[in-house]
Design goal:
Length: 330
């Protein structure tokens, strides 16, 4: 901190870019306390701290800080506002919390002093110019739009982050995504595909989400895969397919709509232990061959086209596919 702005300006040449500077009596702002930030060798005004205190005490203070001015929110919570991760990668200051303010990448990252090895994955971990690791909070999921690149690259990076974490939710944020033919290697248990309201995924060519079998039988392979909400559409013969052979539990719920009738089946569930589709689900096709030896199938408030789906001829489906239990709800 400096007693006055003039004294801070005199010392500016010795301060690194990104450094926060507190002025105890800013002669340009009614001698109040203020905070500046070093940028390109000069001091840039950030906030009048005395006025901030008054704003926070007002009845609208919380709303004002949270929604009307993200840089003010950052200062109030001791965060350094930056436009995007590219700014953090060149950062040499001493901030330990950063608020990204640009579009889909917006959010908070915090320095983890215990981690000195993790690579910058462009989704949940970022490395600054000093090699410090800044991390996102992933307790509410990993958002596809945190990553940069086209939609394929974003999904690929998000899945890699899920694999590194060992579980998690892949969050699609209520817009239209375009995925071009690719095999996405998921290879992880406890994964949710959460398509938030108004999400639509357009698939050109064969878009495959793959869980390669790591072992046969119910005690091998992956488990607990959930697909929730949104719309998956094929474009010009394109389609999505989920290869879940020998995954122990697969559930499709909450308004999921998959229209990919150009392929022989959407799900490959060979040897899957449980498959559940319920709560207003529509699936373009589930081929009979793709569900051979599923032990338990539960269908509730779900429809589909194509042969082999257990409605209305679920008895034949059960007999032909060696399923132990099929439960079709009214």
């Amino acid at each position: 901190s400096f007693p006055t702005l003039v004294e801070a300006q005199s010392a500016a040449a010795t301060l690194p870019d990104g450094q926060s500077v507190e002025i105890l009596q800013d002669e340009t702002r009614d001698w109040g306390r203020a905070r500046y930030r070093m940028d390109s060798g000069g001091l840039v005004f950030v906030v009048n701290l005395d006025q901030l205190r008054l704003d926070l005490r007002s009845p609208q203070g919380s709303s004002y800080v949270m929604h009307e001015d993200t840089s003010l929110y950052a200062v109030a919570n001791r965060m350094l506002p930056m436009s995007s991760p590219s700014d953090l990668r060149s950062y040499t200051g001493d901030a330990t919390s950063v608020l990204f303010t640009e579009g889909g990448v917006s959010g908070v990252v915090r320095y983890d002093p215990l981690d000195t090895t993790s690579a910058d994955n462009d989704v949940t971990v970022y490395v600054d110019a000093f090699g410090r690791r800044f991390k996102r909070d992933t307790s509410l999921g990993i958002f596809v739009d945190w990553a940069t690149g086209d939609d394929n690259e974003k999904v690929r990076k998000t899945i890699a982050a899920i694999r590194a974490q060992g579980f998690g939710s892949i969050e699609f944020s209520g817009r239209e995504y375009t995925l071009v033919e690719e095999n996405f290697d998921v290879s992880c248990s406890n994964v949710t595909f959460n398509l938030r309201s108004d999400t639509r995924i357009l698939c050109t060519g064969r878009v495959l989400f793959d869980w390669p079998p790591t072992g046969l039988g119910y005690n091998g392979g992956y488990r607990d895969i959930l697909i929730r909400g949104g719309q998956w559409d094929g474009v010009g013969g394109g389609h999505v397919q989920f290869n879940m052979a020998h995954v122990q539990f697969v559930e499709v719920v909450d308004g999921t709509y998959i229209d990919c009738v150009n392929w022989n089946h959407v799900f490959d569930l060979m040897g899957c232990r449980y498959f559940v589709a319920r709560r207003n689900v529509v699936i373009g096709k589930v081929g009979a061959d793709s569900t051979h030896y599923v032990e338990f199938i539960q269908i509730g408030d779900a429809t589909a086209s194509g042969t082999g789906w257990p409605r209305p001829e679920f008895d034949e489906f059960r007999d032909n596919l060696n399923c132990s239990y099929i439960w079709v709800e009214d």
